[in-house]
Amino acid sequence: MTAVAGLLLAGGQARRMGGGDKCLRELGGKTLLARAVARMAPQVSTLVLNANGDPGRFAEYGLPVVADVVEGYAGPLAGILTGLQWAQANAPNCPWVVSAPTDAPFLPGDLVGSLKEAVDELGADMACAMSDGRSHPVVGLWPVRLAGELRAALVDEDIRKIDVWTERYRLATVEFPADPVDPFFNANRPEDLAEAERLLAIKK
Known about the structure:
- About 30% of the residues lie in helices and about 20% in strands.
- The longest helix has 15 residues, at about 75-90.
- It is globular and about 40 Å long.
- Residues about 15-20 have low confidence and may be disordered.
- Helix 2 (about 75-90) packs antiparallel against helix 4.
- It has a 7-stranded mixed β-sheet, with helices on both faces. Strands 2-3 form a two-stranded antiparallel ribbon.
- The protein is of the alpha/beta class and about 200 residues long.
- The protein contains 6 helices and 9 strands.
- It has one domain: Spore Coat Polysaccharide Biosynthesis Protein SpsA, Chain A, CATH 3.90.550.
């Protein structure tokens, strides 16, 4: 299988969670980040964390930590660009980067394989995940070759929404089952963590 680099997104400001590092909140005795790493690491050739601020606070996870290459908290699209540029410089054997948020503790074990298979079958430029009729543009498979075009869209055109950028390309959308637990459930607010605890019991 083609080598794919994994990108975990933690570059946001977590306002709805009250600020701080949302991914370091605990769920079932493990941080959300630890759960995301456990889900993603077996599926990729290498794994990198996109986070702003002091990288030292993530030292125990043993991941490269890279800050947004576009300043001003420009959103997940800036995180994706950061991952593509990181792969260009550090993982030349990986022509693809798969991105996922660090606040999604139930990511599917076949995420990368399913996205790559869809791209290959449809001859698509990229792929995004979907579940329960909802698209999850932050969970996607991105070609490193488009790093320059994405940078131009962000910097020159001030594009911030993933959907606005992806509509320029052939996009494959992959549906993942949401039963018994939506694999892309994300913990944005404190009450979401309580719901995640309930779902964790179902998932076991």
